[in-house]
Amino acid sequence: MPDLRTQLVTRVRAMLSHALGSSRTRLGTARAELDAAAQRLRRTREAAARVPGRVGAERDRRIADLTDRYAAQIDRLAGQASAAAAREAPGAAGTDWPGWRPTPVNRGEPPGPLRIGTVRLPDSPTVPALVPLLDVGHVHLSGADRTGCDDVVATLLLRSLGRADPGAVRLIGYDPEHLGGGLAGFAPLSTAGLLTFVGPGGLARLLDDLVDQIRRINETVLAGEYRSLRELAAATGRRPEPWRVAVLLGGEELSRHERGQLDRVVRTGAACGVHLVVRGIELPPDPTVCRVVVTGAEARLDSCPDLSVRLDPPPPATLVTETSREIATRVNAGPPPTPFTDLLPPVDEMWREDSAHGLTAPIGDGPQGRPVLLTLGDYPPHALIGGPSGTGKTNLIFAWIGALAARYSPAELEFYLLDFKEGVSFARFAQGRRDPSWLPHMRLVGINVNTDREFGLALLRFLAEELRRRADAAKRHEVTKLSELRTVDPQGRWPRIVAVVDEFQMLLAGRDAVAREAADLLEDLARRGRSQGIHLVLASQDVRGIEALWGRPALVAQFTLRIALPKALRILAERNDAAQTLPRHHAVVNAESGMPEGNQTARIPAASDWGTWSDLQHRLWRMRPPDAAPARLFDGDAIPRLDEAPDFVALRPPGASGRSGGGPEQPTDGSAERVAGGTRGPVALLGEIIDVQARSAGMRLPRAPGRNLAVLGTGVDEACAVLEAAARSLRRQHRPGTARFSIACLDPDADTAARSLYDALGDDAAWYDEEDIAELMAETANGLGRGSAPGEPHYLLLYAVDAAAGQLGVTVGGRTGLEHLRHILHNGPERRTHTLAWWRGVARLRADLGGPASRTDQIGAWVALDVQGAELTTALYPAAGSGPDWYPRPWRGLFFDRAVHRTGQVIIPYGPSR
Ligand SMILES: Nc1ncnc2c1ncn2[C@@H]1O[C@H](COP(=O)(O)OP(=O)(O)OP(=O)(O)O)[C@@H](O)[C@H]1O
Q1: Does residue 283 or residue 66 have the better pLDDT?
Q2: How large is the ipTM?
Q3: CA 777/CA 733 separation, integer angstroms
């Protein structure tokens, strides 16, 4: 039992101890948990105590970050706005007054808005405050500060003037309270009509006028084609109308009519370049109105009412007056010419036009900025250009030729040009030493032809021949007009021909044969050229030229296209005095024979200065067809050279074949090759004919009586030149050793020239002087009698033979030297002995031939130098009773060959060989 109890006790103890142990453990755990919780609590408390500081710091950091980003963005936007404003309102539209100067916009570019002040943002660049005006709208100023408003007006006006070409902005001032005082600085503009003041009570008239302008511009300038002048300018690069800025500075309450007109201007003005800058008058609400409220030096714009604008200071008074004065001076000096390039088609459209029905090209701008066209065709066929010296005829011809040449290819159009006044400006159309280019359409250029009317005649004859050729072709093809001929003969080359004669009255001056023939040819060409595509353009500064035509109504009637330059007289019809009031560099173009209703005014661009012209010429020259040849240049001041004469180059001895290298394509009168050794005898070339082909005047020396030449006059150089050309050309037609040249010189002044010829002729030449000339005569005369065979050709070249009268008076072998000479002249040519001799006067020739009553038929041909026509009487010049129309002039001769000529032919002696 005790055991049981003991056991029980033991078990209870064990149980209690176990329970105690586990209680202790749980207690320990609980305590540990308590500690941990207490620690967590403490840590949490500590952490909680730290939270507000950190969050605040984070918030502050974020706020600072946002502030920085905001500032940077504002800065960037302000910078961008500033740059955009500088782009929008560059130069005069936006720069500060110090250093300000006008910077007109380029053609077609919009003028853009104008700066009146700046918008200032804290810590950021300032941004220009811009106000649109020209081409965009109107500006309305308000605010108690009248001076501040007037300063803004001055700023807007000066900047507008600076953005436009001089004269392109016109101001109309209405300032009834201060009678223009607000615009006083701009007063110099009124001297050029660029500023007009309207007095008190004139507002209605001013507004009526603006409304009229708007209506006119809409009807005639925009004409439904463009919505605004701005659009027109962008499309065409032209601005035919100025901007009109009406500055209205206060006044009475507007009447109903005025209000209505003002509303119209506000609504419709901007498209037509009519603008208002207004203070003290209400403007109706309209999107084109920019409203500026001025308070002291600040302003607010209705476009961004939240931003305050710091206004620029007003422009310095001296800047306003100086600029206005300068603009007025420039405008008073005349409008700058429109550029020549305006007359040209785009490069890729050059040479695209067809001339079958006519030639049309612009010559300048009309008052509305539209091109004024000139047409040559069946109607009008020919043109007359007139204007006093210096008014721009030559320039107009350049402009017209350029505009045509850029449109029509050389296959469609050819030019022939003749300038009777001194000067060489037309020479540039031909190939020159300095500039190898030429105008591919140009076939002939005659310059310095003022004394050589024969050249004009030659041109007219050439054109008459071309007219005949065309008329024949038309007849063959049974058509009547060029356009029809071109249709039926598409392979043929039938360009229209435009022949321009500047100072053409020179051609018709005098009452001689040249003038008569020229007038006849002109009349024929004018009448029949129309249908064959040959057009005449005659220019004259001189009323006499026109009057020369006036005597021939049939001729004048054909010139239906009239172009009158400022102050031109009698080019237009009698009651049409439009040319009298023309500004500089303008022309009245009239295709109605000068009747007033046909008037069109054109502003002519500058086309004649070297740079302007040569750009076009070089371009067209590079486009020329591969076979294009340069134009023939006839320069009346130039002395031709024998070695370069095509007819000389083509000469060769009989039997020689082929042509010498570098020669022309064909001997121009067929002389050389057919002549050499042929039955017609060799040819002595004497000088260049004044014609369109640079041919040589030649005298044939067949075995026939009278084939001798007399050179008459005292001109030593000219006489030597004629004899030298004759001898050298003859020499070229004989093989060495087959012809003799005997040179006798009796004038010491001619000695050098004669000796140089002697050297050039080499072994075939013999030299004589006063000592042995009698011997030469005797020998030659005696030689003619021997045998019947003609013997080898012998040419006697006698210089100043009249000076040998003494020596030839001596008797040798039963006859005097003069008798021998007469015998040679008489009998020589049939035996191939030809005398080419220079007598220093007609009387001396007659004396050597046997006196005034002697026969002269042994002188078959002569060249007269400084000998009056009247001296060349019937004996020498059987064609006319009183001798030829010949007035001596330097380095010219009149050549007459009885065998071939009806009238004398003017020649230019060849210059001394180099
Ligand atoms: N439309 C123009 N624009 C600018 N300058 C021009 C214009 N027309 C002519 N000129 C200039 O005026 C001057 C005279 O012109 P031009 O030689 O054409 O006159 P002209 O009537 O032919 O005179 P003249 O009969 O004396 O030769 C030249 O210097 C020329 O460059």
Answers
A1: 283
A2: 0.98
A3: 25
What 8-state DSSP symbol labels residue 217? I
421 in a labelled binding site: no
The answer to whether residue 107 scores a pLDDT higher than 50 is yes
Handedness of CA 159, 161, 165, 166 (dihedral sign): negative
pTM above threshold 0.80 = no
CB distance 393 to ligand 1 below 6 Å = yes
Contacts of 243 (CB under 8 A, 6+ apart): 111, 134, 135, 160, 164, 168, 169, 170, 273, 274, 275
Q: How far apart are CA 113 and CA 290, in angstroms?
A: 11
Backbone angles phi, psi at 519, to 5 degrees: -65, -40
Query: What pLDDT is recorded for position 79?
Result: 78
Integer Cα distance of 377 and 482 in angstroms = 10
Whether the CB of 541 sits within 6 Å of ligand 1: yes
Distance CA 792, CA 789 (A): 9
CA-based nearest residue to 139, from 49, 214, 249, 57: 249
How big is the chain, counted in residues?
A: 914
392 C-beta closer than 6 A to ligand 1 = yes
Mutate to test the pocket of ligand 1, among 384, 395, 397, 585 (most ligand atoms within 8 A of CB): 395
Measured in angstroms, how far is the CA atom of residue 429 from the centroid of ligand 1? 17
Closest residue by Cα to residue 311 from 136, 496, 126, 543: 126
Is 387 within any annotated ligand binding site?
yes
- The residue-averaged pLDDT of 428-450 equals 88
CA distance 655 to 670: 16
Pull the structure tokens for residue 425: 């400006």
Q: Is 463 helix (H, G, I), strand (E, B) or coil?
A: helix
Q: Report all structural domains of the chain as residue ranges with CATH numbers, in order of start.
A: 115-332 (3.40.50.300), 359-635 (3.40.50.300), 679-908 (3.40.50.300)
Spatial distance between the Cα atoms of 670 and 700, rounded to a whole number of angstroms = 12
Residue 551 corresponds to which amino acid? G
